[in-house]
Design goal:
- The complex is a heterodimer of chains A (about 260) and B (about 400).
- Chain A has about 260 residues and is an alpha/beta fold.
- Chain A is about 45% helix and about 15% strand.
- In chain A, strands 5-4-3-2-1-9-8-7-6 form a 9-stranded parallel sheet, sandwiched between helices.
- In chain A, strand 4, helix 7 and strand 5 form a beta-alpha-beta unit.
- In chain B, the strands form 4 sheets. Chain B has a 6-stranded mixed sheet, with helices on both faces.
- In chain B, helix 2 packs across helix 4, helix 3 packs across helix 12 and helix 9 packs across helix 10.
- With about 400 residues, chain B is of the alpha/beta class.
- In chain B, strand 1 and strand 2 form a beta hairpin.
- Chain B starts with a strand and ends with a helix.
- Helices cover about 45% and strands about 20% of the residues of chain B.
- The chains are: A alpha/beta (about 260), B alpha/beta (about 400).
- Chains A and B meet through helix 3, helix 5 and strand 6 of A and helix 1, helix 8 and strand 11 of B.
- The structure holds pyridoxal-5'-phosphate.
- The site of pyridoxal-5'-phosphate has 22 residues of chain B, from helix 5, helix 10 and helix 13.
């Protein structure tokens, strides 16, 4: 099933979906494995696996440090492919996507990278520094492989730009809730509500929204306004502070009082 | 060809959140470029504020000593703030004023671009934040002092290799939050379009002047033109004056560090450690490993200590229009000593790379031929690095005494 169809069918039984994120090899692949198991067992719908890059320009301090530490430990792109393959096979109920910067893809060979991503069972890729104008071959190859190339809406996007961008993407649209890098928190205010309404008007694709979500209240604010809540920096912080074992309860807590769900 | 591309190099690999900012910047840049009054305003400002045109100095002693080509030195060290960086910065300052933005940010390696930006911000009344790798803050402490005194906030960057590339990443991280009122004054002919083209345009003033000056002084075009290449802005600046004449050989000199066969250098076009890549918003030759992770670089000159190179120069190198060479740290200090003793001129450590190659080649050239060395900046900013490299005993004594007196 195509990713957007899969997400839409999941939405028939859930108020909002969850996408989580982790940096591969940080703090270790063992910890990644345990974190992913807990995420999968607690009903996460999508997981972004970030292949570390030495210049993570769009990331804030927490994810930046995770990238650097992973690389300092010698994490290679090949390790990331092997690990992702293992996870996709073990947790087939979860949609796995690679998130990374374009140089990793480019250096590996764009077509080869995408083919292998498809072969190992991932469903798409998120590349924040590859705008559609520069990604024509990436978009075309992704489509032909039935991989979802995820595109972005931002608060600075005009309605016209949103329509243009969404038309070139698949799967879902990653809605950046505010200006700035990853990891900062934003309040739900009338500006954000209006922005999310504009996003919905621009596309039929599901909307995934991230803005430093760290609690049940944050997720609840998004219900009815977005299709998927993105939890990035919060789980990295949690694992840093309390270890992988804390992740399951945290994820469960994000949709704790959701109606129609047994927890 | 696609806009912003030079052969296969360049482009604008920017996060979506900056799309609208680049639409505005491109429009404003295109408008300025079409407007002869803008260029005149720029020349007037540079003439009145920054000593342009800078002289082309005939280095008679050095020429006679080497016994070959006549050596001319283009004196960007005499620009206000002591380097070619001011050309780009003042140009972007005029553009910022047109865009109505009130704050500028910049990365800096050697600190020259940071000082130039802080100076421009003071002159135009902008707020200013400068990102500088922690390692460079240590290497170039006097420039940090000046930036702060000029009213800028200097933020030491402690991520990654703590040098220029990390300062660029950090400046982008600021910009993705602050773009509504902030312009990022990129310091060299790198980064996403329109920066390479725009910075090359502002720096073209060097080559326009140098061509006129060499014809007036030497009576014909030079045989060769030398420039050091960090990101490539001073090189692009002077080279543009001579592109049209195939008889003029253009030589870009990269940082050979401890040797291009070691892993401690910053040579992208010489040596075999660079490969095509996409980072910091553009596609060029980057020093990187097989996975695409950027490598640590080294140069005695902070301004050349960078993983990438202008996409325009990658293209010119590929076409064979620009020849690339590398100069080692040791050769740089020798060339610096020689130039000081023979001409009473102190090139910046960056600029001294260009001197190395000219000094190597001039003796084998005819006395009727001329070469131009682009002296991108003055060396007195490097007093701590140079004194340390020369292991100068009386300087050390002075530093120890001064430190003791502060401790009391
Ligand atoms: C004096 C001087 N020359 C050269 C450079 C290198 O930059 P570019 O290659 O852009 O001219 C710098 C950079 O800081 C510099 O300060």
């Amino acid at each position: 099933m195509k990713l957007d169809d899969d997400l839409k069918s999941r939405l028939q039984s859930k108020k909002i979906l969850l996408m989580t994120h982790l940096v591969l090899g940080y703090p270790s692949f063992e910890t990644n494995r345990e974190v992913i198991r807990q995420m999968a067992e607690n009903g996460v719908d999508c997981i972004e696996l970030q292949i570390p890059f030495s210049e993570p320009m769009a990331d804030g301090p927490v994810i930046l440090k995770a990238n650097q530490d992973a690389l300092a430990q010698g994490v290679r792109v090949e390790d990331c492919f092997r690990f992702a393959e293992e996870m996709a096979a073990e947790f087939s109920q979860v949609n796995f996507l690679f998130m990374t910067y374009y140089n990793i893809v480019f250096r590996y060979g764009e077509t080869r990278f995408l083919e292998r991503t498809r072969e190992i069972g991932l469903v798409g890729t998120i590349i924040p520094d590859l705008p559609p104008e520069e990604g024509e071959s990436y978009l075309a190859t992704s489509r032909s492989l039935e991989l979802a190339p995820i595109t972005f809406f931002t608060p600075t996007s005009t309605d016209e730009r949103m329509r243009q961008v969404a038309a070139r993407g698949e799967g879902f649209v990653y809605v950046v809730a505010r200006r700035g890098v990853t990891g900062e928190h934003t309040e739900m205010d009338t500006g954000l509500v209006g922005y999310l309404a504009r996003c919905h008007a621009a596309t039929d694709l599901p909307l995934a929204v991230g803005f430093g979500i760290a609690s049940r209240a944050d997720v609840a604010m998004l219900e009815g306004r977005a299709d998927m809540a993105v939890i990035g920096t919060a789980t990295i912080r949690l694992v840093d502070e309390q270890g992988a074992g804390a992740v399951g309860a945290f994820i469960a807590g994000l949709h704790a009082d959701e109606k129609g769900r047994e927890r | 060809m696609k806009k912003g591309y030079f052969g296969q190099w360049g482009g604008a690999f920017i996060p979506e959140v900056l799309h609208a900012t680049f639409v505005e910047l491109n429009a404003e840049y295109e408008k300025a470029r079409q407007d002869p009054a803008f260029w005149q305003e720029y020349l007037d400002l540079m003439g009145n504020y920054s000593c342009r045109p800078t002289p082309l100095t005939f280095a008679e002693n050095l020429s006679d000593y080497l016994g070959g080509a006549r050596i001319y030195i283009k004196r960007e060290d005499l620009n206000h703030t002591g380097a070619h960086k001011a050309n780009n910065v003042m140009g972007q300052g005029l553009l910022v004023r047109r865009m109505g933005k009130k704050r500028v940010i910049a990365e800096t390696g050697a600190g020259q671009h940071g000082v130039a930006t802080a100076t421009m911000a003071a002159r135009f009344g902008f707020d200013c934040t400068i990102y500088m790798g922690e390692e460079d803050v240590v290497r170039q402490r006097p420039n940090v002092f000046w930036m702060e005194k000029l009213g800028a906030t200097v933020v030491p960057v402690t991520d990654g290799a703590r040098t220029l590339k990390d300062a660029i990443n950090e400046a982008f991280r600021d910009w993705v939050s602050s773009m509504d009122n902030t312009h990022y004054v990129l310091g060299t002919v790198c980064g996403p379009h329109p920066f390479p083209e725009m910075v090359a345009w502002f720096q073209s003033v060097i080559g326009i002047e140098a061509k006129k000056q060499i014809l007036a002084q030497h009576g014909k075009m030079p045989a060769r033109v030398y420039a050091c290449v960090g990101g490539g802005s001073n090189a692009m600046g002077i080279f543009q004056g001579f592109f049209a004449d195939d008889g003029v050989e253009l030589i870009g000199v990269e940082a050979g560090g401890k040797g291009i066969d070691t892993d401690q250098h910053a040579s992208r076009m010489c040596g075999d450690r660079a490969a095509p890549g996409v980072a910091q918003g553009y596609k060029t030759m980057f020093l990187q490993n097989d996975d695409g992770q950027m490598l640590d670089t080294h140069s005695i000159a902070a301004g050349l200590d960078y993983v990438g190179i202008s996409p325009i120069l990658s293209d010119l190198g590929e076409q064979g229009r620009v020849r690339f060479e590398a100069a080692t740290d040791t050769e740089v200090l020798e060339a610096l000593s020689l130039t000081m003793k023979k001409e009473g001129i102190i090139p910046a450590l960056e600029s001294a790379h260009a001197f190395v190659q000219a000094i190597k080649e001039a003796p084998d050239m005819g006395r009727d031929e001329a070469v131009i060395i682009n002296m991108s900046g003055r060396g007195d900013k490097d007093i701590f690095t140079i004194a340390h490299a020369f292991d100068d005993p009386s300087w050390k004594e002075f530093i120890i005494d001064r430190a003791d007196s502060y401790r009391k």
